[in-house]
Amino acid sequence: MYPKRIKIANFTPSGKGGAEVVAYQIHQHLSETFNIKTIEGDKLSIQDMIREFLGADVIITHKNSFIKKFLPALFVKRNRKIIMFQHFSLTKSKKKDIYHKIIYSKVDLFIPMCKSIEQRIKENWSIPPEKIKTIYPGVDTEKFFPSEIIRYKKRKELGIKTEDIVLGVIAKITEKKNQEIILKAVCELPSKFKERIKILFVGNVEDQKYYEKIKRYIREFNLENSVIFQNFTDRINDFYNTCDSAVITSKEEAFGLVALEALATEKFLIAPKDAGVSEILEDKKDSLIYKTNNLKDLSEKIKTFLEMGKDEKERMIRYGKEKIISNFSVKRFIEDVKNTIFEIL
Fold first, then answer.
1. What phi and psi, each to the nearest 5 degrees, are found at residue 275?
2. Which residues, in sequence order, are CB contacts of 6 under 8 Å at separation 6+?
3. Which of 35, 137, 149, 145 is nearest to 85 (CA)?
């Protein structure tokens, strides 16, 4: 069978998170080799999902619950190959019961996005090790790039002064993303720093109750003039260029594509130790790593960043950018996925 005739059904959740970004990358780049169709499974009935399933040679899913919807078709899958990408941290996921053993026996390959997820799968799921293959995601350096012109225009649009220091948190507004910690961490800083800082939250509000909590903290800490909210946009590169540093605040982050995007855009990065992406980061070489959900440690790392000399910051930024180009480009990611598909076929 010629590759272009191989039909791939790429099932993605609806939304704009990391799983959806990876699904889009796969669609965009594999369409040059395969006949690929990307489907937002959340919007389909079970009958329509099964129809798409039965019409494909390879099924890729980016959400575990889709497999349960495929259940009637799993037992007539014939020569279809099934790949499950694992984008989620699986911290409380136990799948060793007979039901999951049967379902997952029908899956040909599990692809965790980092080694920590791979380890949790091995510990908590009944899956042979040979069916698990970690593939780190990549970032599109044509989409994420530094630009002084974009930086100037976006800062002017948002009313940010040249001397302001912008800490960017690129994430949907939910309790899991833990945006409150950066507000508290900034309040711990000496006043000479605090006065110059702007906190830029970029992400849609998915938890209204938590959003109201964030706004209460802003009022209590007198940060009304220091915080800017922006909804997610496809022009996310504009916001990275606006920032001086990207900060990942999550209590739990399976991987954290934001880190790769920030490094590609040549932005300083501050990330939590327990995020999956921290496996490929190097503290004080390409980023500053803080203890996850530790207010004082995050505040100290922000202070370290603010006190750093220009040369040291630029050295770390260069090192991070070179790492992205060498090892974490979308081109490398797609080649790994493509080779994996050929292997299971």
1. -70, 145
2. 34, 35, 57, 58, 341, 345
3. 137
* Residue 106 main-chain phi, psi, to 5 deg: -85, -10
Give this prediction's pTM: 0.92
Give the number of other CB atoms < 10 A from CB of residue 1. Answer: 8
Tokens representing 303 are 């202070």
pLDDT per residue as tens digits for the range 226-276 = 999 999 998 999 999 999 999 999 998 889 999 999 999 999 999 999 999
User: Using CA atoms, how far apart are residues 149 and 334, in angstroms rounded to an integer?
Assistant: 31
Q: What is the pLDDT of residues 101-119, one digit of tens each?
A: 888 888 999 999 999 999 9
Contacting residues for 331 by C-beta, under 8 A, at least 6 apart: 138
Residue type, 289: I
Burial of 108 (0-12, 13-18, 19+ CB in 10 A): middle
